[in-house]
Amino acid sequence: MSSERHPQHADASGQPIRRSPWPSTGLLLALTGSIATLWLAATGQLGLYIHPRYFTFTAILVGLGLVATIAAHAIAEPGDDHDHPAPTGWRGRLQGSGGVLAALALVVGLLVLPPATLTTTTVEQRDLNSSIEADAQLVGADPATFQLRDWAALLSHPATAVTYAGQQITLSGFVTPAPDGNPDVFYLARFVVTCCTVDAQPVGIPVTSPAWADSHPVDGWLEVTGTLVTSEASTTGGVVLKPSSIDSIERPAQPYDY
Amino acid sequence: MQSTASRPSGLTAPAPGRRGPMLIRVGVILALAAVMLGLRLVADPAWTAWLPDAGRDFVTLSVSVFVESLPFVFLGIAISILVQVWVPDRVWQRYLPRNPFLRRIALSVLGVLFPVCECGNVPLARGLMMRGLGVGDALTFLLAAPILNPVTIITTYQAFGWEDGILVARIGGAFVIANLLGWLFSRHPDPSSLLTAGFEARCHAEPGVPQTRTIRSARLFAEETTVMLPALVAGSMIAGAIQVGIPRSVLVELGSNPLLSVLVLMALAFVVSVCSNVDAFFILSFSATFMPGGIVAFLVFGAMIDIKMLALLRTTFTTRALALIATLVALCVLVLGMGLNLVL
User: Fold this and answer.
1) Is residue A77 in a domain?
2) Do residues A92 and A155 both lie within one domain?
């Protein structure tokens, strides 16, 4: 029994548990998670995953977690453990291999793959502009302060959309095809995040650009300047952005609207 | 964070002969950290350019759940260590009321003082029963504490605010269900038959070697991360996979049915076993497609009963008792969730 009580130590070293210099599965996962998260924070990329209101909280707690992980490994002594008898037999092996798989998944997902925003695949999965609600506060406000999400809300309702015809705007977002597949209209889109990326909802405004697919890759980031015009094109609000200039840009540091 | 604060005393506490191994362990973990950071810095996007967009979004969604939850998991572990190691048992035993109903009410809000996730509550409940607390009373604590605690309430509020009464229904529902089951089981004619035979013996086996609080804190940190982080990784990946893999039309169909929205999310909660103090972030992405009763059922049922929790409780309760507890909780939550769907 005693040799099986700490499968995490035995798993990590492949040897009896006493004085193993290798960390347990949990400490290994904590180390991977906190190093990757602190790297995201240090390089200004936490915004790809969580709302800015969590930046400071996350950086501080994960930083403390990293210190605690190192300290715990330094001073923890394997010993008799009556409160947490580790499962033995098949259950212990299952738990052990689950920990190894989790560690592999974390290393690949957090340390190997490049940080990324969501793509058009998720736009299609979640239906562009499906989450939009009319926002009465926008009407009459200064259009220069509007984010892409505000324009998407305004343009989705014919009655308000028409009142903005002739308005000049400049917006940045990524390219996603029109939901009806119109080859001469693409949507300039962004995700709106409430808490973290898992709740991201796609919003976008229609941009007229004949045969746009030849010059603008899907998911590429653009800054578009142009004028809102009424149009017969297939849009819910009957107003589209007619561009005077379209510039390719790098993905901005803050790719989501909040 | 206790282990952090008291690190210096931990370094001086062991006998001089143990300093060598300790330096090796520090060296090993710092080297591992350096390797990880190095991998992150040299990892070339070209290595993974073959990955399709759906795979990329799966990773992005999973990572976002993980990164959002990680600081809260660390916070929960820190408080769990504080309570289990640094607060003497007798301090909180002394103040429990004698009247069984009042005692269970007190026990169900005890989680406010022990804001740990359900994994941390099992050892606490075992300790309570060892000191003579009834099975029903311990059950009330076990079921209520994962929800009626500050970390869970804060994360649920962060995710949902006051929207659709989800926060209120979660707290109120958990309180009522925990007290109801505690009362039911307190009327059991032979409570000891609910417990595993080995439980009593194991609990009386005190550790032979006394350890300093710092060392116990460090051990607890290693154990809690070993229980919680694999579950968190698996939960994050399931959340990401469902978002990418199941068409929105199916989710909308299931989620707008008053009965199915509750049953599906209860089944999901049982399988994913995400800790109660971060499950609100997990389920947030479903709030657009599922009725509020389903969300509440997920948040209440998952915090009380799931695969991970059953595995932990099996150390203490018989399989028969656990099946009974799980069934009763499931029925209560079903009524709660469907009731909300029909009222709201």
Assistant:
1) yes
2) no
